[in-house]
Every structure is written in structure tokens, then in C-alpha cells.
Amino acid sequence: MTYRLHRPEALRALTEAMVTKAGWTADEARETASHLVLANLSGHDSHGVGMLPLYFNSLADGNLSPRSKLSIRLEAGSFLIADGNVALGQPTARNAVERGIALANAGGVAIVNLLDAHHIGRIGHYAEIAAEAGLISLFWVNVAGRPPIVAPHAAKEARFGTNPHAIGIPVPEGEPIILDFATSRMAHGKARVALNKGVTVPEGYIIDGEGKPTVEPKHVFPHAIPGEPLGALLPFGDHKGAGLSLIAELLSAGLMGAARIDEKPHKSWIINSLFGVLIDPARLEPNAALRRQRIESYLAFVRAAAPQDPADPVLAPGDKERATRIQRERDGIPLDDETWSQIVAAAARHGVDAESF
């Protein structure tokens, strides 16, 4: 497997050029580029610029349109219910979360339900946005518009999406705690990265179409195994991850009648619905200095635990991503050759020369 290092600013400029050429506004392009490149900088290449070819395939298939925009169904008291209308996910979700932040700032708490947006990206991104605004956040997201890809515990066929969950806790004048994970053992996008790199995945992450363990990521991509039954990702923590996945499906989409994973789509796309709770911690403890002292003293206790490997220190949620950002801002973002070739081809369809960035 070979790869190239790309400057973050070059990837942002390329993404903005591609998205605006395809018909979206400069603001929508800027938000999408910022989100995707930050995912790469954070070490989450599964949710970075490698998603662009998929978005542009959805655009070419008529499943994603620059004309689609967020609409508000309810915005009253502490509640926001918004229709994503399968609009470009990153700017759509940010719009909804920022509206929820305004409600939480006014009333102390907000409940946000964004229904049927296109793929909204890395969920921890929205926990970071809420933390920057000084708010605690909890997010659950489903994945619809595609066949199920995660098996329930004890099953040998899929019934769930990867259905991520994120929690953010701000630390006054400090770095926030950001917990962000798929409810599967690995994100589907990480399996895509492994497939593009031509590498295997760890044992216990995937089963093939017969329900047998495999380390080959091709078994969770129909185009990689034409004519064969699709395999599945496994949930993390057995029944625990599977249970969280089920809850995410119902909270984000099921209660409000948004697209669910069990409903066969008329088109091939990625649809996300998001359920979020935003809380002003100042309503719980008005003294910001005390909040910081209480959080940081416990984090210090946790980080001080003796590591199993001295080269791999104990971290708090968000520590690894911040360290990776520093390193990749300095050294560049690695993209494997297959992912880069897919981006180059998607850009060329709209008259953008990716190699010039």
C-alpha cells in the first residue's frame, strides 16, 4: 500500500472547489471542507475527504441535490424538530445543532431531532461545536438508505447501521471531553479505508455472508463481492453495542417516522437522522472554576493510571484526536493511492483538476 501526504489547506481548497462546482453555495462548501478535513486531521480518515466520491456518486445518481435545504417543523421552547430533506449533511447538521445551541442558551436545555439529512459526517464534530458554545451534548444517529451492515448480538446477518453515539463535556478554559464511537466494532468507513489500502481488519470485527469470522473487509461491500451474500460488521461489546444501536435507531428516526434501516430505499444513498440533547452546565454548577477543578482533578487521576505499555499512555476521550491534529497539521494528511484516485475522478467530472491543489 502506498500513500501521499497532502497539506490540509490544499485539501480544504480542493473540497471547496469541488462542492461549489457541483452547485452548492460557498458557505456550504466551506463548512463541508472544514468538517471533512478536520476528520482527517483527527485521524478519522473514514469520515474525511475520502467520502467525497460517495457524495458525488449520490449527486450523479440524482439522490443528492444542491437545491435541497433544511426546513423547520417545530422550534418552540426547548424543542427543535428539523427536516433535513436529504440535503448536504455537514452544513445541514451544523445548522440544526447551532439552532439547538441557541435554545439551550436561552432555556438551559434543548432537544434536537434532525430528520433525514444526507450523510452528516463525524458525530464528534457536533459535540465539539456544542462544547465550544459551553454546552454538554449527547447525540445518537442512525444510518438509513442502505442495507443493514451490522449484525445484532448472536446473529449471523445484519439488522443495524453503524449508528454512532457521541457525548461532549466542556471544560472551562480547557480542552473538552469528546467521546465519539460507532456502535459496531469498527465504522463502515474504516472498513472502506482498509479495503482501499488492501489490508485486513482485526479478528472479531467482521463476518462473511455465511456468518463466519473473516478479516477481509470486502465482505461488507457489495461491489467487492458481486454475486456473493453480504457479510456484516459486528457490534462492539456484544449485546451492549447492539442495544445502543437499536436505541439510536429508535431515538433518531423511529419515533418521528424518519427513514429507518429496515425500510428498503427507492434510491441508494446514506441518510442520517440525529437526536441530540444539549445542556447548559452552568445551570447545574454556576461556578465555572469549580466545574473545571472537579473535571480536571478526575481526568488527572485517570491519566495517572499505570499503563500496560509505557509507550501507550492512558488517555481521556479526545486526547488522541488532538495529538493527531498537531502531528498531521505539521506533516500532512496521508491518503492511500486508491482513495486519492477516486477523489481525482470525482473532481474531474466537474472540471476540477485535483492534482493542481
Blueprint (SSEs and pairs):
Blueprint: E1 3-6, H1 8-21, H2 26-41, H3 52-60, E2 71-76, E3 79-83, H4 89-107, E4 109-118, H5 124-132, E5 136-144, E6 165-169, E7 177-181, H6 188-197, E8 206-207, E9 213-214, E10 232-233, H7 239-254, E11 271-279, H8 288-303, H9 319-331, E12 333-336, H10 337-348
Parallel strand pairs: 3-4
Antiparallel strand pairs: 1-12, 2-3, 4-11, 5-6, 5-11, 6-7, 8-9, 8-10
Q: How would you describe this protein?
A:
- The protein is α+β, with helices and mostly antiparallel strands.
- It contains ten helices and twelve strands.
- It folds into three domains: 1-67 and 317-357, Hypothetical Oxidoreductase Yiak, Chain: A, domain 1 (Orthogonal Bundle); 71-184 and 235-283, Malate/L-lactate/L-sulpholactate dehydrogenase, NADPH binding domain (Ribosomal Protein S8, Chain: A, domain 1, 2-Layer Sandwich); 288-316, no CATH class.
- The strands form three sheets. A seven-stranded mixed β-sheet has the order 2-3-4-11-5-6-7, with helices on both faces. It has a three-stranded antiparallel β-sheet with strand order 9-8-10, with no helix packed on it.
- It is 38% helix and 18% strand.
- Helix 3 runs parallel beside helix 10.
- The protein starts with a strand and ends in a 9-residue tail after the last helix.
